[in-house]
Request: fold
Amino acid sequence: MMNLKYKPELPLTEQPIIIIGAGGIVGDAHLPAYRMAGFKVYGIVNRTKEKAEKLAAEFGIPYVFDSLAEAIAQAPENVVYDLTIMPEQYIDTLKQLPDGSVVLIQKPMGDDFDHAQEILQLCRNKNLVAAINFQLRFAPFVSAARYMINQGLIGDLYDMEVRVSLKTPWEQFPLVMVHPRMEILYHSIHYIDLLRSFLGNPTSVMAKTLKHPAKKLSSSRSTILLDYGDTMHAVINTNHDHDFGLDNQESFIKWEGTKGAIKAKMGLLMDYPHGVPDLFEYCLIEEGSLPEWKTVKLEGSWFPEAFIGTMSSLMRYAEGSSTSLPTNVEDVIQTMAAVESAYISSDTGGIKVSDQFKNLI
Reply:
């Protein structure tokens, strides 16, 4: 059985966390992940204090603050601020943090590219050590695939595909489901960021994001093609409207190379929020043998374990045990540029067949 390295390295020092916000993702992912990793959550603050108090009681958080100003005033040394609020609150919140603060910001990095640029400039002006919480990069199945690819086991990577075709209960995310840029900005953005983490920045983006005829959502299906030249195929297909049972639902990432392939089933998204088990498979081409797919059992999943990775990478960078901060704001601004390009492409459309060939048909 192949021995894969996929678990995140933890920081060497204790860096207490103050969480700003108390939405569902905090109780479902942030706090369970931090408890698994042994991170110390010092305090929490939320505009509706009762929500913060409930989480504090459940997870043993010592302090519930009445305001952000109080949280900052009582913050211990080496504190890491964990922003779990909506993007429209980022600027005001970041302005209040002391210069030089260490902060993990929930994705997306703003409501659009202009907003992202404003956030980036503010982080620069305040000298913040700031990262965006793109946890999918640290999911066990992604880290295992990255390890195999970095070891050269599947040869030269020439194809990456993400396919999601399932029923997503958007009603569980009331603040997200009313957003005018829902599907790409709040879901497919994970995959755009993921492909960038493997392939770098695309030269161009082609996309179409679509509504469902019977739903009051801004968008719920997208196809996104990232252009990396004439040999790399990088595509994202999402359909959150496949409400026809589990039998034919799909949720996977696939990597293909000249020597092999990897496929990771993202079970979390299927039958959400219950999920189904993940599945990590690979096939390595061996001369004289028929292709054979093998399975590796990995511990953990996207939720909550991947949330250890984003926080741990920030802590390790802040303490100096790592020189790399993968999801820093300087990198993620490129993800936001690709997202904005996808929306522009979707709005402007492709080549109009009737205009190009009307005189030839």
User: Anything to note?
Assistant: The radius of gyration is 21 Å.
